[in-house]
Amino acid sequence: IIFSQSAPSAISCRYSASSAPIKGAVDVMANDHDCNNGPVWIKAFDAQTLRGATVRRVAGGGPGGRDALAYEIVGTARFTFHDVFSYTVVDGDGLENKGHVLVLVDSPNLLLNGDFESGNDPWAGANATVEPASKERPKEGSRLRLAGGGAASARQRVALKPGASYRLTVRCELPKGQRLVLGVAGKDPKAPLVVSKELTTGWMMRAFYFTAAASADSGTIVISRPDGGTGDVFVDDADLRQVGPTEAAEYAKEWPSDAKE
Questions:
Q1: Beta strand extents in the chain (DSSP E only)
Q2: What is the pTM of this model?
């Protein structure tokens, strides 16, 4: 009989916070396990991140009394950013593996009523209505409906900082052959927004990055559906936040693709 030993599994995870300062315990071992069904422990971790945050052990701070790691950073987030730190788990046989934690820190959402739970206000537009929650979608709540047939749009004015970078995200449901267009009046004309192409049905998250014009102190966010086509377009969770100028590139480069919530 041959017995084989395998290193424990350390699955990358995400930790989100609404704003800094942050002082919270992260249950980094929530997705980790020992391939030999034994216990695992946190052996080592990054004590400081590239963003200057401090990471420390919280003995018994996780579910069931397992250790957790506390991520702490001071100050108020001027813009949405992400941070990464690593940790090492070890099992009873001394075998190790490394996991990563992505920390997402959000600056305030600049859009009012982005979840459309308060009707149309302060959104304005044409052929756009708010559809309330239904028995079929009790957890979804209200959503914006851009009626099919003719052009439809909803718009909201926001305060923009000259030359600052922003991330605009929405959740949307598109019938096949329909398009959703996001526009920003007040953005840098050299940094156009991406227009979504024809997509299959189903809810999806769309994220777009743009830079405000050097002279802009305000702008208008426009969510629209072009004229023509059949079927309604639905939008929910509209979100606009200031981000760092290299946020998009940093996120794609640094964060591992196997991350789980």
A1: 13-17, 22-26, 40-45, 54-58, 68-73, 81-91, 96-105, 124-126, 128-131, 143-146, 152-158, 165-173, 181-185, 203-211, 219-225, 233-243
A2: 0.63
